[in-house]
Amino acid sequence: DLDKTIKENRFNANLTASFGLNQNAYELPDAYKDPLSQQIVILGITIPLMDWGNSKGKKQMAMKNREVVYIEAQQQLNDFKQDLLLKVMDFNLQSKLVQSAQKAGELANESYKLTKNRFLLGNVDVLKITTIIKTRQQAEEKYINSVYNYWKKYYEIQQITLYDFINKQDLSVAFDQLIDD
């Protein structure tokens, strides 16, 4: 828009020409049959001498609009970087959650084995073994959910960055190759 405004502010002249034939009749079709020999030609030229600062104002407005667009683009870039940083931090936290859920699952499994042996010996009642089984299942579910969330976060980051961290390659290049094939 700024470039367009600057180009529009250069010297500008308009040349106009009109040509007409004259005839009159009582009915419309007859008016176009035999035009009279009276022909009219009009030539005109329009040259702006002064615009009272209008072009300068348009140029300044276009410059301000360009600045606004630039600031909005910078803000979007900053928002993108911040969103990516938060996703990476969340991904790193998710890795620790997977390790924690894995340890909790291992402890629940050991607890189940011990309680099962005690149950077989008759030292633990059915309620206790049922509770331990339920605890072990919950630990397994938490582990599975944490692994799911880990990979979900990984692929969200991969989608945002368009980079495959496992194969260490730019995904936009791979996408371009798919289109070419």
> N-to-C SSE series?
HEEHHEEH
Compute the number of strand runs.
Answer: 4
**Shape, principal axes of CA atoms:** elongated
Alpha carbon gap, first and last residue? 38 Å
Describe what this molecule looks like in 3D.
67% of the residues lie in helices and 11% in strands. The chain is built from four helices and four strands. The strands form two sheets. Strands 1-2 form a two-stranded antiparallel ribbon. The chain has a two-stranded antiparallel sheet with strand order 3-4. Strand 3 and strand 4 (169-170) form a beta hairpin. Helix 1 runs antiparallel to helix 2 and helix 2 runs antiparallel to helix 3. The chain is elongated, with a radius of gyration of 40 Å. The mean pLDDT is 83.
Write the layout of secondary structure elements.
Blueprint: H1 2-8, E1 14-21, E2 39-46, H2 54-121, H3 126-161, E3 163-164, E4 169-170, H4 171-180
Antiparallel strand pairs: 1-2, 3-4
Helix pairs in contact: 1-2, 2-3
Quick structural summary:
This protein has helices at residues 2-8, 54-121, 126-161, 171-180; strands spanning 14-21, 39-46, 163-164, 169-170. With 181 residues, it is mainly alpha-helical.
Keywords:
4 helices; mainly alpha; two-stranded antiparallel ribbon; about 180 residues; two-stranded antiparallel sheet; 4 strands
